[in-house]
Amino acid sequence: MIFTKNLISDLKDVPKEWVFQHYLNLKEQLTGQDVKILSAFNAKDKVPSMCIYFDAVSNQYKFKDFSSGYQGDFISLVKKLFNLTMSQAIGKIITDYQKFILNKPDYKSEPVKFHDRFKVVDFEMRHWNNQDAIFWKSFKINSKMLQKYNVAPLSRFIMEKLEENNTVTSFNFEKAYLYGYFGNNGELYKIYMPKNFNKKFIKVKNYIQGSDQLSYTSKYLVITSSLKDLLCFNSLGIGNTESIAPDSENTMINESVMKKLTEQYTKVIILFDNDEPGVKAAQRYKDKYGFDFISLDMSKDLSDSVKDYGVEVVRNKLFTLMKETL
Length: 326
Prior knowledge:
The chain is α+β, with helices and mostly antiparallel strands. 32% of the residues lie in helices and 22% in strands. The protein has three domains: 10-103, Zinc finger, CHC2-typedomain (DNA Primase, Chain A, Alpha-Beta Complex); 116-206, no CATH class; 208-326, Dna Topoisomerase Vi A Subunit, Chain: A, domain 2 (3-Layer(aba) Sandwich), CATH 3.40.1360.10. A hairpin with a 5-residue loop joins strand 6 (151-162) and strand 7 (168-173). It starts with 15 loop residues before the first helix and ends with a helix.
């Protein structure tokens, strides 16, 4: 006998959270919390780099996989996992949920509740010291460059989040080698912790790094993978170029911004890390915007290359690679 009350014929009858739980084999129901797992798209992933998070704007769960650069909603997940069209993905979700419900008729999707995230609520600046000088000078980045791009040393910062029972969880992070990245308006947009190997960056707000410093008077624009790489690129002294950096390699600068930039510069060149994630991220920019990219086959990234080989060697190598793209 077929119980018609359990038949699923419309995508709206499928809980969006179930899609992530089922196809990613999550061990917990999604009720508003964020979850981080190994990439579902990269079998070589050793450290969890795929985030499943509740997006308050769209009021639904989404995913972002930093290993592959894939991101989107529950339909996008199934499309990418199984290489399907949108209609095929929708059909698969409905069919698979139907089978799931027939085997587990008592299944109930838990309601999504408010889950706050840790946010930077306070920080304290300090004076530069010899440790800072040794660290930044190893990448040939001087104090004038740090000042121009609003990099300042921090003595500590505080993060808080509101728990479901209305209590506040807070922690104070106080350690050497803490740096705040600020916009020209004085607002903190990122914290950099180079000696904290588990988590080097804390994003505070969206910001295209280096955008405040653009003069739009140069012929070429180079997009680097990080602010440190941007600073190193500027230290090379390659003329007629300016540079910016997205939040990360896997954060695509949106089309409206790129349209404005391509109108201002004769050519845009991508200079990301030369490892697999960096090459994949650069390829996505080429696929979407048609930008050529350079793979500097030296150390992992530009800043490490400058540190390991020196300014002159890197400049000569990079200048040759850039000429080949023009």
